[in-house]
Amino acid sequence: MNTHPAYNPDRLFPADPGTRDIARRLYLYVEDMPIVSPHGHLDPQMFVDNTAFPNPTKLLISPDHYLTRVLHSAGIEMEELQVGGHEGKGPRHAWRLFCENWDLYAGTATGYWVEQEFAHVFGIDPSRICSEQADSLYDDLSEVLAQPDFRPRELADTFKLDVLATTDDPLDDLEAHATLRADASFTPRVLPTFRPDAYTKMYNPGFKGNVEKLIDTAGDGKTGYEGYLQAMRNRRQYFIDHGAVSTDHGIHNCQTQPLSAAEAQELLDKGMRGEATFEEALAFEGNMTYRFAEMSQDDGLVMTIHPGVYRNSSPSALKKFGPDTGHDVPFALDYINGLQPLLADFGENPDFHFVMFTMDETAFSREIAPIAGYYPAAYVGAPWWFIDEIDAMKRFRAATTGTTGFSRYSGFIDDTRAYCSIPARHDTSRRVEAGYLARLVAEHRLTEDGAADIIVDLIDNSPRRVFKL
Amino acid sequence: MNTHPAYNPDRLFPADPGTRDIARRLYLYVEDMPIVSPHGHLDPQMFVDNTAFPNPTKLLISPDHYLTRVLHSAGIEMEELQVGGHEGKGPRHAWRLFCENWDLYAGTATGYWVEQEFAHVFGIDPSRICSEQADSLYDDLSEVLAQPDFRPRELADTFKLDVLATTDDPLDDLEAHATLRADASFTPRVLPTFRPDAYTKMYNPGFKGNVEKLIDTAGDGKTGYEGYLQAMRNRRQYFIDHGAVSTDHGIHNCQTQPLSAAEAQELLDKGMRGEATFEEALAFEGNMTYRFAEMSQDDGLVMTIHPGVYRNSSPSALKKFGPDTGHDVPFALDYINGLQPLLADFGENPDFHFVMFTMDETAFSREIAPIAGYYPAAYVGAPWWFIDEIDAMKRFRAATTGTTGFSRYSGFIDDTRAYCSIPARHDTSRRVEAGYLARLVAEHRLTEDGAADIIVDLIDNSPRRVFKL
Amino acid sequence: MNTHPAYNPDRLFPADPGTRDIARRLYLYVEDMPIVSPHGHLDPQMFVDNTAFPNPTKLLISPDHYLTRVLHSAGIEMEELQVGGHEGKGPRHAWRLFCENWDLYAGTATGYWVEQEFAHVFGIDPSRICSEQADSLYDDLSEVLAQPDFRPRELADTFKLDVLATTDDPLDDLEAHATLRADASFTPRVLPTFRPDAYTKMYNPGFKGNVEKLIDTAGDGKTGYEGYLQAMRNRRQYFIDHGAVSTDHGIHNCQTQPLSAAEAQELLDKGMRGEATFEEALAFEGNMTYRFAEMSQDDGLVMTIHPGVYRNSSPSALKKFGPDTGHDVPFALDYINGLQPLLADFGENPDFHFVMFTMDETAFSREIAPIAGYYPAAYVGAPWWFIDEIDAMKRFRAATTGTTGFSRYSGFIDDTRAYCSIPARHDTSRRVEAGYLARLVAEHRLTEDGAADIIVDLIDNSPRRVFKL
Fold first, then answer.
1. If you count DSSP H runs as helices and E runs as strands, how many of each does chain C have, helices first?
2. Which ranges of C273-381 would DSSP assign to H, the alpha helix?
3. CA gyration radius for chain C?
4. Residue A226 to residues A218, A222, A244, B79, B445: CA-CA distances in angstroms?
5. How far is Cα C99 from Cα C441, in angstroms, rounded to an integer?
6. Structure confidence at residue C2 (pLDDT)
7. C-beta atoms of A329 and C367 within 8 A
8. What is the 8-class DSSP label of residue B35?
9. How many CB pairs under 8 A join B and C?
10. Which reaction does it catalyse (chains A, B, C) (predicted)?
11. What average pLDDT does range A236-242 have in this prediction?
């Protein structure tokens, strides 16, 4: 029996022996359940092609900003990690840097996930991630990845992947999704998600071109704001036709004040001319958040938001490596003052599903749980990104449950770009839920039978119910 | 022996056996102490009339927005819960909805309190709250409520109610309070609390009429701002004459900048004409917060504030069901920058008692504990509303005690509209305190004897000392 | 064996027996390590003079606002505690007040530290801190302090003081530091720290005189903003020549937007004329935060910031007792939007060390860990001031580690004015780290061997690495 902690059956459970025993029993109910992943960032083409992963670095390191940021903070150049298409000194060199600096990940969720992947996906002892064995590990892992069982589709079976949502540009043709839907031999449901951020943020480069293309392509010949709204509606329908159940919005703040058509047209014009102030751009973005909620009343798409992130805070890294390379930083927001117009008009509709994610955990008990604990439309989004780590997940539970119970929870979200981390992330959630529920049982706040029902509902039913799966 | 957790003598205590043993022993010191409740929302007329509660729904469901909001979030119409005077499909139908959806309350403080009420007030097994037994439970509970022992005054004895404060309009005649004070057969002290919010918030409907009536009734013939202040002083004295010990202020933010009489008069005029901007209204409200503190220097009333709540966020619900129906949502505030004028002028006075409540738990360690840990006037208000749930109470203790100790604590506040939840809420507080202190003993930060002294002081002396009872 | 908790070898460790056992073993690795204290507020002249401490009050009470604020909150006049040079009714009277009110400190970190000092520095049973023994305790402690072993230098040996940084005015001649460096018989390194706050905050009294003196003294004959910058550079170099490794900045907020030389000159002129608005003053201060970071690129000084404090909130106390007397209060800040200009230009430089302290613990998981987890220059500052208490230190670990690991930690900072509390504070940190790591081991997230390596790195290597010692 391997003694590495990654193999310990009690990992992540509370240390108190009595509570741990309860957690063990609760975990058994959900340990082997299929994976429902209603939000993430994988490329669906991966399943169409179903080719072997090129090498350990391209699979595990380069695309995962959770992982590269830690190495970068230690002064390692991101090009040597093959981030943003850079080749650096090759994949084996990147791999060595990773192994040599493995100690940096101690105590992090990222480190835990990687160890779980080695132990439970690749069947390789994670204690081999070290300077001395970097090369042999690279070779052995390469060999594993070359096996037919480790191609994307085969892994989907191994992972018991039931539902996997991708995140897609409104003008994406969704051909990969169509191909997968048409392929009876592939059972997981791979669903597109409508993410219109590139078309709503005037302050980002490319806005003008994006909007022109959107209106031209999908505006039904209408122009201006009218064509813009029409194109959004049309593309949402196209996504629905390809299986989409939700839209996703990385909005800057929580503004949702609607504008009149004339006001919106004026701001849109300014934005297209590159003359909008940041405040005007946010007013337009806030109007669109409201409009997307309005569209959901008609087409039924679930709406998820995750506001409050300073994107690409390092201009030099953005220029050299592109976005999503680890230097986005959250900031605090006022939820209720921003969201009130949207909630006032659509929050009372139980058929509208509005999931509020946050990277600011202080909002959980102060705003998000109170909102979701009243409005039939509002749901508490799972903790994600930065606060998807283990202790933060525990804090999330304790911050929301006492106020709002379990019923307003979105279900676990992995939000990942790292395919092989999916089982580890979901298993982490299951263990954290088991530990939390075990504490409530140990404190005589729930019966163990009640807790068993709840954990099954949290893991399997919640995401299906909230995301209308 | 009933095995439902509600009966477990160790409920809410920490799971670690050693710590739990200490908690048990500490709890014994306070388990049977009388209840001191210096802030709440019961109608004192209830004790004057002392009639039986009409039915389970009117007692437990309709008036309690803690409870109805959870059902509403699941899509249940509030009129069917008989909220806001609506009859829906009758009380029995509302009761059935409650029982059918009982699972929604798992893990919530509200659910815990209700179970405690059934087990320890009504003597009914809480496992009967379920779809199947909804009707028989309604009947059995109705029978219980018809017994003489379950009328308000008799319950007050059962609850060991020593002090109970109500929350009252400045123009209330306080006749019920006078009647109760004059009645030697009724031993609990039922004290009015002066809450002038309806007379300070220009942005609320009814402001003009309220202020006119106030000045006319109690302004000693003076007019304008001078009459307004005089009327406030007079009504405070009237409250004091009827036993009041404190004033309560649901202020929008923490502004306390005083205005000159001329500035205040100008804003008051604008407000009366309905022409004040929101910023002007807040400036006037902030001035009044300062003025109420100033009045307390003279008349000695304890002053409590609870800023930072977006009231009635759902306009449709406000219109149909009225205020206090579950859609108030907290937001974050800057305490010290707002409160500094008040603290600078009155904070150094130990005879002035200024209790800071918050619904934003982040303020506890950052602002409230530091302020109360220096200013002799300032006290850390108990966690309430949304953060009065069990785990939040634990976080409150851990967030304030290390900085400020136990001596600056307001004492527990139940703030309730649900009469029968009072014993459960106070018992919850006693158990949480016992658990926290037990941890400090187990970590060798306190002796058990020292912890015993502290828990007695927290439960019984703190509220009496801070509220000058 | 004394049964007072201060002597218990398991103090502060987690209560769960299994976890406690692990904590005990981990603590042994660091229990006796030398003390590295890269930031604090002691007077270096103390070590030059090496005279006995005058009396218990002057040593323990008067200079320590952690301690006096608690007594003050209970209504005790600060002059009676001999704060700010006041004599009150003499040191023995102050001591009695302290002893009589000792219960106020139960559960506080301050109380814990004082007990540790008595038990482990003075060799006096801390249960003697009580009303009855106040006088005999004063006498006995006075006797202890008169012993040669209890002079500053001898205590430095007892404490195993290896590095101690002071905080100094840019125009300080650093003669005490020079004397100590030249004295081969004194082994601890006592390092100055460059703290220019009095020269950057236009809104503080004395700004004009300070700046004039700075430019005259060290401006190389240059005038205006140019002379000001040159003088800063020169004095930094002077500090470096006297052993300084870092600069410290108690900035008001997080602004770091650089100004052009012309803009800065204009604001400086306004400030010198006393005509700058608060916003203009903050713009100048923000520019200087950026400029100090810029200077660090050249001279290599580590830069520490601790923004977000309302200083001297009680004007009457400021007037009577001076600054740093317990009425500073933290407030919330936006880190990333403020720091982005600095991080954009200097954050990618691994040779620049930028340590972010905060008194707002919500920033740890939301902003500080994400920033330090990406930027090679950025470090997570240890929790300090208000949140240097025991439970807050635990929360700090749990808020930062899962995201960023251990490698971005500044090392423990005692930030103290209370010399004899230094061992207790560092020991507290070691025990908290042992307890946290023990939990990770008990939850199978780390091996015990790995945890042992980490705790040694945290306690000894981290501060040396981050502060370039």
1. 21, 10
2. 278-299, 315-321, 335-346, 362-363, 369-372
3. 22
4. 12, 6, 24, 39, 67
5. 41
6. 85
7. yes
8. E
9. 142
10. D-glucuronate = D-fructuronate
11. 98
Whether A401 and B107 have beta carbons less than 8 Å apart is answered as yes
- For B179-201, write each residue's pLDDT tens digit: 999 999 999 999 999 999 999 99
Of residues B5, B313, B332, nearest to A366 (C-beta): B332
| Residues facing residue A161 across a β-bridge | A35
Cβ contact, residue pair B5, A405, below 8 Å: no
In C162-223, alpha helices (H):
175-182, 207-218
CB spacing of C442 vs A15 below 8 angstroms = yes
Q: Are B67 and B191 in contact (CB under 8 A)?
A: no
Q: Is B340's CB within 8 Å of C313's CB?
A: yes
Q: Which chains touch C (3 or more CB pairs under 8 A)?
A: A, B
Question: Any idea which residue has 């290597």 for tokens?
Answer: C461
Q: List C-alpha distances in Å: A49 to A45, A121, A150, A177, C58.
A: 6, 21, 13, 12, 77
Separation of alpha carbons B458 and B439, rounded Å:
16
CB contact under 8 A, C73 and B404: yes
Q: How far is B40 from chain A (nearest CA, A)?
A: 19
Residue B434 has a pLDDT of 98
Q: How confident is the model over A107-134, as a mean pLDDT? A: 97
Q: Which residues make Cβ contacts (< 8 Å) with residue B297, sequence separation at least 6?
A: B346, B349, B352
Nearest chain C residue to B451, by CA: C106
Residue of B nearest to C390 (CA): B402
pLDDT per residue over B341-397, tens digit each? 999 999 999 999 999 999 999 999 999 999 999 999 999 999 999 999 999 999 999
The tokens describing C265, both together, are: 């000159």
- Considering only the beta carbons, identify the residue of B15, B315, B316 that sits closest to A439: B15
Geometric angle at alpha carbon A36, from A30 and A37, rounded to 5°:
130
Half-sphere exposure of C443 toward its Cβ, with a 13 Å CA cutoff?
20
Is this structure's pTM higher than 0.95? yes
What is the rounded distance in angstroms from the CA atom of residue C435 to the CA atom of residue B399? Answer: 19
Cα-Cα-Cα-Cα dihedral sign, residues A82, A85, A90, A91: positive
**Cβ atoms of C47 and C156 closer than 8 Å:** yes
CB of B366 less than 8 A from some CB of C: yes
* Pick from A4, A12, A104: CB nearest C407: A104
b vs e for B271-290, b when ≥16 Cβ sit within 10 Å of the residue's Cβ?
Answer: bbeeebeeebbbbbbbbbbb
Q: How does the average pLDDT of chain B come out, rounded?
A: 97
Residue with tokens 């779809």: B131
Q: Are C6 and C126 in contact (CB under 8 A)?
A: yes
Mind listing the pLDDT tens digit for each residue in C58-78? 999 999 999 999 999 999 999
Q: Which of B436, B438, B460 is nearest to B447 (CA)?
A: B438
Express as a percent the part of chain B with pLDDT over 70: 100
Distance of CA A191 to the CA centre of its chain: 14
Nearest CB partner across the interface for C443, out of A11, A72, A310: A11
In whole angstroms, give the CA distance from residue A466 to residue A461: 8
Query: Cα(B138)–Cα(B101) distance, rounded to whole angstroms?
Result: 15
> Which residues of chain A make contact with B103, given a CB cutoff of 8 A?
407, 453
Q: Which amino acid is at B356?
A: M
Give residue B355's region: left, alpha or beta (phi > 0; psi -120 to 50). beta
Residue C329 sits at φ, ψ, to 5 deg, of -135, 130
Residue type, B372: A
C265 by DSSP, 3-state: which?
A: helix
For residue B168, which phi and psi values (nearest 5 degrees)?
-135, 150
Interface partners of chain B (CB pairs < 8 Å, 3 or more) are: A, C
